[in-house]
Sequence to fold (118 residues):
Amino acid sequence: MAKKVLEEAKISIPEVKDILTKVFERMERQDMKPDLFSEAAWEYVHNFSKMDLETARKIIDMLQKEYSMDESQAIQIVNIDPNYPQEIRVILQRDPTLRDLDDEALTIMIQQIRDLEA
Fold:
């Protein structure tokens, strides 16, 4: 039976990992097994989540406030956890104001991300 969608939101990989962890814990307490799709999703987020939930939220908030970045762009940056300006540039290339940031500004952005991860 199909379930009704109650809410739709854009979320980062660390947020998905947190949600799936809670779901799996609840299923375990009820002696239930996850389906193959849920197991595959868990494996993906377990392998590709590069930070904890609290840090991810702090970074998303910082990017939106300090750079007036769209939520989708901020989430993508959290998901890839960039080390080089070129990685951010790919995400920002369609934004008319942010695509013109130079490498120095993007390096500062990366450092701000690292500071929040510390």
User: Anything to note?
Assistant: The helical segments are 13-29, 36-48, 53-67, 71-80, 85-92, 103-117.
